[in-house]
Design brief:
The chain is mostly helical and about 525 residues long. Helices cover about 70% and strands about 0% of the residues. The chain has helices at about 15-30, 30-35, 35-45, 50-75, 80-85, 90-125, 130-140, 155-170, 175-200, 205-215, 225-240, 245-250, 260-290, 305-315, 320-355, 360-375, 385-415, 415-425, 435-460, 470-490. The chain starts with 16 loop residues before the first helix and ends in a 43-residue tail after the last helix. One of its GO terms (cellular component) is membrane.
Length: about 525
């Protein structure tokens, strides 16, 4: 498949299918799996939630994964260049995804910095008797009201800087020597840590109470539209689709890679981890309920409150709490690190494709800018407020909307689904049928539109988080709209080399040789020459 410009350096490749799968799973399995899924399931029917969740996985999650894998593998480019190959105006979508990834990476890193500190705090239970006051007061020194930055927090700054050093070092080593090797270490380690955590959790007093609360089905909930929206929303946010990660990762695949099978493995692996996280979290909350005499429904929380307030409180009151705390926060660090690597890679790959510069300059340039933004804004007394607002608006009006525009453009405007289906079927063990085109052409767009309307309705009913309108404007709406504006401006800059709208010459990819074993191209080693895009 002649997707590269004549004379262009060969694109990097994964060393093996396992390496790609572990990287894809590592991207999908992140903080949201641990602290979002359990509360979403509990609030939306308990055990009954698993039915719409599974349907959402099969009708939106996996089809979206296959779409992004196919686009990435077919065009062998980052999102802007891949969409540009379909049609010149479509590159705006790719740049939009790059801008979204930039914003998310900037604030996602600071949560890892918190988790890094809490690995140490857990050894001495430094939060004392009041985990809430310790986290928001002593540790983050959060201002009473959102506003301008007035002080920096050294206890967050230094671990945040360390996080960026580790991430950029891994990315600088390249796709195979850096990202793939890191995930081959981190993902098995994460699985081992989390299995130990879950086994410990289910043996605690009161664990059965927590698990009953989670899995007792409320079948009446299935008649509520909000439950189905929640199921699709959870699948969508947890699979790393919609902001260019999977397109970027799939662009490093070999030309005969099994796309459908890989999507099924990654999708079900991600969901299995979510269910495992649900078991561990609710077994632990059951222990808290039994010890405090508080009903389980009053102990359920999610997000930052679950990880940095509820769990430290539980750790202080459980047998072997030090070990449990260490494993829990180490798991957060690992899960977050593999996700952050994938997010930053989207921006790095786009810069490489756009400018033609080498891997190391791209990583240092992109990483340096990202790290600067991250350490200037978030280890501050207003950092938590900035993070909360940016996260909400870039997710609701960045990722969701960009995914909607991408699906509608590919399926309805450019009508590329039949071509992409043929491309995927040429090398996949499980062939796609008409269900895939229906899922992406009808079901996924309708669900995303529904999610947008539902979100906007809530947005206009009351200010998110009770924040002042002026703060939400510049820390929320301006961030989401700014990503669109940057995408439009980036798309107006001229490209050198390959013309826009040029499809691969052959109809399928099944006849192209992969090259030498080990994923190397033209004898070049990963991370040390043309295979990484270095001239």
């Amino acid at each position: 498949m002649a997707t590269e410009t004549s004379g262009a350096p060969p694109r990097a490749q994964w060393g093996s299918r396992t390496g790609f799968l572990l990287a894809a799973i590592g991207s999908a399995v992140g903080l949201g799996n641990i602290w979002r899924f359990p509360s979403e399931a509990y609030k939306n029917g308990g055990g009954a939630f698993m039915l719409p969740y599974l349907i959402a996985l099969l009708t939106a999650g996996i089809p979206m994964l296959i779409l992004e894998y196919t686009v990435g593998r077919r065009y062998r480019k980052s999102p802007p260049a891949a969409f540009r190959r379909m049609a010149r105006p479509a590159q705006v979508i790719g740049w939009w995804q790059v801008a979204i990834s930039f914003v998310i990476a900037a604030y996602y890193a600071v949560i890892l910095a918190w988790a890094v500190r809490y690995v140490g705090f857990s050894l001495t239970e430094s939060w004392g008797d009041d985990a809430d006051a310790f986290f928001f007061g002593e540790f983050l020194r959060t201002a009473e009201q959102p506003g301008w930055i007035s002080s920096y927090i050294g206890g967050v700054f230094w671990p945040l800087l360390a996080v960026w050093v580790v991430v950029l070092a891994i990315l600088a080593l390249g796709v195979r020597r850096g990202i793939e090797r890191a995930n081959k270490i981190f993902i098995p380690l994460l699985v081992v840590f989390f299995i130990v955590l879950v086994v410990r959790a289910v043996t605690l007093d009161g664990a059965a109470t927590g698990l009953n609360a989670l899995f007792s089905p409320d079948w009446d909930a299935l008649t509520k539209g909000s439950v189905w929206v929640a199921a699709y929303g959870q699948i969508f946010f947890s699979l790393s689709v919609g902001f260019g990660i999977m397109i970027t990762y799939a662009s490093y695949l070999r030309r005969r890679a099994d796309l459908t099978g890989s999507a099924l493995v990654a999708g079900f692996a991600n969901s299995s981890f979510e269910v495992l996280a649900g078991i561990g979290v609710f077994a632990t909350l059951g222990f808290l309920s039994a010890g405090s005499g508080t009903p389980v429904d009053e102990t359920v929380t999610s997000g930052i409150g679950l990880a940095f307030v509820a769990f430290p409180t539980i750790i202080s009151n459980m047998p072997l709490g030090v070990l449990f705390g260490f494993l829990f926060f180490a798991s957060l660090v690992i899960a977050g690190l593999t996700s952050l690597i994938s997010i930053v890679e989207v921006v790095v790959a786009a810069v490489q494709d756009r400018t033609g510069i080498g891997r190391l300059p791209a990583v240092l340039g992109v990483g340096g800018l990202l790290a600067a933004v991250s350490v200037l804004l978030f280890p501050t007394d207003s950092g938590l407020y900035l993070l909360d607002a940016a996260d909400h608006f870039i997710n609701q009006y960045g990722i969701v909307l960009a995914a909607l525009v991408a699906v509608v453009t590919v399926a309805w405007v450019l009508r590329r689904l039949p071509v992409l289906q043929k491309d995927a079927d040429a090398t996949s063990a499980v062939r796609l049928g008409v269900w895939w085109r229906i899922a992406l052409g009808v079901i996924t767009p309708l669900v995303l539109i529904w999610m947008m309307i539902d979100s906007l309705r809530a947005e206009f009913d009351e200010n998110y988080g009770g924040y002042p309108s002026d703060f939400l404007f510049w820390a929320g709406w301006a961030v989401a709209l700014g990503a669109v504006l940057l995408a439009v401006l980036a798309s107006l800059l001229p490209w050198r080399g390959e013309p826009a709208g040029t499809e691969p010459k052959e109809a399928t990819v099944g006849t192209e040789p992969d090259g030498p074993p080990g994923g190397q191209s033209n004898g070049q080693s990963d991370g040390h020459g043309p295979v990484e895009g270095r001239p």
